[in-house]
Amino acid sequence: MSESEEPEPQRSLKRIIWQYENCLSCVWFLPNDPINADLLERGKCTHPKLKDFELIVSGRDWCNLYKEIRQRHIDVLQEKAMKKEKS
Ligand code: SF4
Description:
The longest helix has 16 residues, at 71-86. By secondary structure, this protein is α+β, with helices and mostly antiparallel strands. It has helices at 8-13, 71-86, and strands spanning 29-31, 42-45, 56-58. It has one domain (21-86). The protein contains two helices and three strands, in the order αβββα. The site of iron/sulfur cluster has 13 residues, from loops. Residues 23, 26, 28-29, 45, 47, 50, 57, 61-63, 65-66 line the site of iron/sulfur cluster.
């Protein structure tokens, strides 16, 4: 079966790609599980303009308030989560 003959759901699935500038790599994303967070991870958006809405976003969501997270910030989130797991 050629690609053009495939039903729409299968064709759309093949178009799912890594989205640059999504919540997973945004400094305002607070994942439920910082240690294992991936594109499907859910978490809170803590952006000052959005936090009052108590948004639950996934790692693959995005918006125009995106700001790239730094590795140091990721390390801090993961260290906190590991300490919490141990206690
Ligand atoms: S919704 Fe926007 S500001 Fe909030 S985590 Fe996602 S990209 Fe960042």
